[in-house]
Amino acid sequence: MDLTSVVPADLPLDAVCRGSFDAKLDGVVRRLDLGDLAHIDVSRIGPIRSSASYKDRPNYAGYYWAATTGRHHWFESLYEKLALTALDRDPTIVALATQPLAIRWASPKQVHVPDILVERADRSMALIDVRPWSKVRDRDADTFARTSALCAALEIDYYLFSNLTETQALNLRFLAGYRFARWGCPRAIAERLAARTGEVRPLEEWLPVMEGTHVPARGLLLAAIWHGALDVTLTVRLEMDLDGTCAGRGW
Fold first, then answer.
1. Are 115 and 127 in contact (CB under 8 A)?
2. How many C-beta atoms lie closer than 10 Å to residue 237's C-beta?
3. CA neighbor of 4 nearest in space, from 139, 157, 118, 125
4. What are phi and psi of 177, to 5 degrees?
5. Residue 132 pLDDT grade (very low, low, confident, very high; cuts 50, 70, 90)
6. How far is Cα 109 from Cα 125, in angstroms, rounded to an integer?
7. Which of 40, 108, 132, 181 has a Cα at 20 to 30 A from 235?
8. Which DSSP category does 161 fall into?
């Protein structure tokens, strides 16, 4: 997953002290102080906005089923769907919400709806905006810098998902088919991987390790890559001669 840190803007203190945000918690829209953002329950958040379908709409919207949460999350562009796919592979993330809140700064007055909010297993959070570099305009960059400053003040991580390559996107779309429960790790495979912690070998040599269960070995191999049980670079086309490093665990 490629996330870019954004240099914070020089955000006036009163923008944090007197600002607010809107969030849909358990289906009800509430306005909260910005300081409450660091303590919000991400699993309770629904999209603060949605968009209607219309002829010649430039972006494709839909729902992505996340293995992390076991439920669907609305996205408003295919690039945002790719961001969700990348985040869904991160084993440290335990909850996520899309279009999670509308930030209302006090000074100067401005409203921004970030794209994704995630919560990690250690209870830390990250706010993420999604925009390809080619589509980031000066106004966008200013908004991202202000959001970064706000998150810094609240001790929340802030990133921009912006530089995914076509090869990485192709690999993510392919591997996402192996995120479902039917490709779960059999106990025998988990034991074999635990005994091979740190080993590096081409994927074609990892394939025999996945054999001998009721689940097809090639599917288990790809599921292991999706879940990070086998660490493989996704910056080049996924082929069987690529090296995979064993993380020493199942999934």
1. no
2. 10
3. 157
4. -70, -10
5. very high
6. 25
7. 181
8. E
Instruction: Please state the length of the chain.
Output: 251
Please state, in angstroms and rounded to a whole number, the distance separating the CA atoms of residues 89 and 48. Answer: 25
In angstroms, the CA 137 to CA 152 distance is: 22
Contacts 24+ apart (CB under 8 A), 68-77: 68/93, 68/94, 68/95, 68/96, 69/43, 69/95, 69/96, 73/97, 73/98, 74/47, 74/50, 74/98, 74/99, 76/51, 77/130
Give pLDDT tens digits for 117-128: 999 999 999 999
Which residues are paired to 127 by β-bridges?
A: 117, 158
What secondary structure does DSSP assign to 172-196, as a single string?
HHHHGGG-SGGGPPPHHHHHHHHTT
Helix (H), strand (E) at residue 65: strand 62-66
Q: Which residue is it, tokens 């076509």?
A: 166
The model's pTM: 0.90
Alpha-carbon distance values, 184 to 64, 115, 251 (Å): 19, 29, 7
Query: What would the pLDDT profile of 65-79 be if each residue is shown by its tens digit?
Result: 999 999 999 999 999
